Here is the input.
Amino acid sequence: MDSVLAPSSTSSFSSPLNKSNKNNCENKSRFSVPSSFVSFNLRKFSSVSFGHGYRYGCGCRLRRSRSSGCFKIECSIRATMASSASAASPEVSKPKIVTGPGGYVLEDVPHLSDYIPNLPTYPNPLQDNPAYSVVKQYFVHVDDTVPQKIVVHKDGPRGIHFRRAGPRQKVYFHSDEVHACIVTCGGLCPGLNTVIREIVCGLYHMYGVKKVLGIDGGYRGFYAKNTVQLNPKVVNDIHKRGGTILGTSRGGHDNTKIVDSIQDRGINQVYIIGGDGTQRGADVIFEEIRRRGLKVSVVGIPKTIDNDIPVIDRSFGFDTAVEEAQRAINAAHVEAESIENGIGLVKLMGRYSGFIAMYATLASRDVDCCLIPESPFYLEGPGGLFEYIERRLKENGHMVIVIAEGAGQELLSESMQSMTQKDASGNKLLQDVGLWISQRIKDYFSKQRKMPINLKYIDPTYMIRAIPSNASDNVYCTLLAQSAVHGAMAGYTGFTSGLVNTRQTYIPFSRIIEKQNQVVITDRMWARLLSSTNQPSFLRAIDVAEDKVDEQPSTQLLDNGNCREVILVSNEKTK
Here is the structure.
């Protein structure tokens, strides 16, 4: 981490980069700045920021070009702010991009000192903690980062990195002044109580923090419900239970009221546990807190059994969900093989991402067909699902099908009207594809093929998310929670604690919420599943070609470590 690309003077930028001209973006203007960027030694600066994906007051956004690797500024004067909280501010915080030699790029996380000057620091109390007395190096080095991709070419750029998680030598909160709160949002997930427990115990035992509140009922609990005082005694055994002791809810919250509540209660550390929708809410809360200039760290812990959060290796609860799904698959296999032409059909969770279905299928080895949202399939005709089922029954006398809840939704033509409806979190309300496809299979073999079958449908959807976490997830929850505590005490904010290449990292909210993680059906893992089940891919040649084009990796921030051009493009929205 040696240098950062930064403008040598604000006068070099005549459009949205100059705040005085932020409402005067010219259409289709283009300018080059080969000499207006200089390289600085990071040791001269306490913090460095550069806009990537940064939204300006006039709607301008700084984005990376896939073709050239340089930054492009896209301007849409009629663009509106994404939320009421950000609309109250002329601009949102600039994501921090730090560059170094060899194509090194650090997507750094915000820090309280970025917008609050002259903050006092304190020695980290861990240096006197007996638990850490055996550790050779107490604290994470300031320049420690973790690469997003570990498979690189010898002449390729080093790529994107994230800040390594862990305790720092200096902290920005004195233990006595910390007033923390924890909130859980969205659907249930194995491990929620474990994360709550470890945040409380981590604050109490590692940093001597005594004031921790539990927010009851999700985001709305900040202003609509009572709070719960948390301490190690209260949370001692909660990891043995499923669900969340704090309660949860979806959507419908008022961000301004939430921040008002945080400010009125004197809370200065907010730990938010939830999925991608919850992390979007956390990002808005962080921006409002930053706009008000409050000394409050906002930290996210990613939660979803669907494993659909990007960047991170996996989300907690996923391993437990896959393990519990084995019970349903095993039951379906027993039912199917115990009767002539038996079919066991299991529906698993996976609204947009089929990771649970894919991994449960690979782990089981009893599944003959796995259907997921990312892999379209068809029922009738050569190479269709019905043809494959008939062939499998004639070969083996039975079969097991696993289907994710979001698979085949485009085939439910009679239910297309309901697909436009959404729940409180903004997720599409899906039809029960398990019941639908069960009936279609029965109708096909009874009416068209005149072939007797015995189909058993098993739906363990909510069972697999309501159980306590297993040993693997319990360990992972501990790492996530303690890393989040270390980051908040070190003054970092606006980040999610997550595992990247088996290393704990701090990831900016902007990266967590930019898209959903999905199964890549042209990837080796999906190929392994196809070879295990021997099912058809249901893909045409054109589908494979299109998917490979979509998977092309984006160009790094710099071309050979030196971006030579910034382009301003105006995208006028049509009515």
Summary: The radius of gyration is 26 Å. Residues 371 and 403 are 5 Å apart (CA to CA).
